[in-house]
Amino acid sequence: MKFKGYRRPDGKVGIRNYVLLLPTSICSNKVAAEIAGKVKGCTTVDNTYGCCQVGSDYDLTFRTMVNLAKHPNVGAVIVVGLGCEGLEPLKVYNELKNIGKPVAKVVIQEEGGTLKTFARGCQIAREYTQLLSQQERVECDISDLILGIECGGSDTTSGLASNPASGAASDLLIAAGGTSILSETTELIGAEHVLARRAINQQVADKLIGIVNACEKRAKDMGQDIRGTQPTPGNIEGGITTIEEKSLGCIHKAGSAPVQGVLEYGEIPQGRGLYVMDTPGQDIVSISGMVAGGAQVVIFTTGRGTPTGNPIAPVIKITGNKRTYEKMKDNIDIEVAEIIEGTKSIKEMGQVIFEEIIKVANGKTTKAEELDHNEFSIYRIGPTF
What we know:
Elements (H helix, E strand, L loop, with lengths): L1 E6 L5 E2 L3 E6 L5 H10 L3 E3 L10 H16 L3 E8 L7 H8 L6 E5 H4 L2 H20 L4 E4 L4 E6 L4 H20 L3 E4 L9 H5 L5 H20 L11 H5 L5 H8 L8 E5 L9 E5 L5 H10 L4 E5 L13 E5 L2 H6 L6 E2 L2 H4 L4 H16 L5 H4 L15
Parallel strand pairs: 3-4, 3-5, 5-6, 8-9, 8-12, 9-11, 10-11, 12-13, 13-14
Antiparallel strand pairs: 1-2, 1-7
């Protein structure tokens, strides 16, 4: 199966063609956002960190930001820095300058303040967007797609309908040679052994069990039992009673494909098929990690409803709750309540989702894109010093 996308110099395929304004710290967020808002065709991410981070926490932020710039939906990059932050603008620029895309940097302290940086950034952004506007979509194979799979605001219909249907869509993509990423380590607790049975080898199975054990240990080290906060109050109101019940519903999003590997947060998969990424259960942080890992498109199931999008990858909203769909039609793209009603099968609705993924890959906008939902947040694994 084919779709039309933007072929990048590294061989990967974008389904969008943005100029990314990449802030290296919270101190350059405002200027990056103002440039992106001024020049059509630009986007930016909200980096609330970038300074006073150390060790693996710093490494995670650096990897995430660099991989976002390498993302196939990004056609050009402008690094926007303050000039004295820990995540040095020059270091980020040097990491990116040879990736085959147009890359520039503007630094507030070097340009002489925010107004001059804004003016210079707008000038470069205009040049880059004009350049990208001349690029045409070319025919690509569906095997070039990486799908991010998320759930949030879950209720009983999530595990019964929207998650299994999304799993069926993921299976179709993987059968065609594509890649899917399942995230939210917190929402594997109690079901990790079920998913681990599908690992391609013992090493992958052990790593999968290991990230779940580490997640529980982090909570216990704080003197907390994670089962006291999961399911969330909204999940409970939606009919989910235990974290195990929530997790057993969550893993249905992964369909039936073998688990090829376990990824760190923001890590790009090196093969094809189904991968699990170690992310928290917070939806925006989780999606941000999968997008940094290269997911060009995300499917997001929700029982209670959520408007969340992403600044780089289109997010397709799916619900199995007819009442939620009727209340939030402006935000939700696909309703699969017919599974609950017994008039359509999981397989049939999985095909509907799969076809929507192809349409979005070809350029159809999602409701989150149309409403400019660009939520983004990076995972933190250490304190600020």
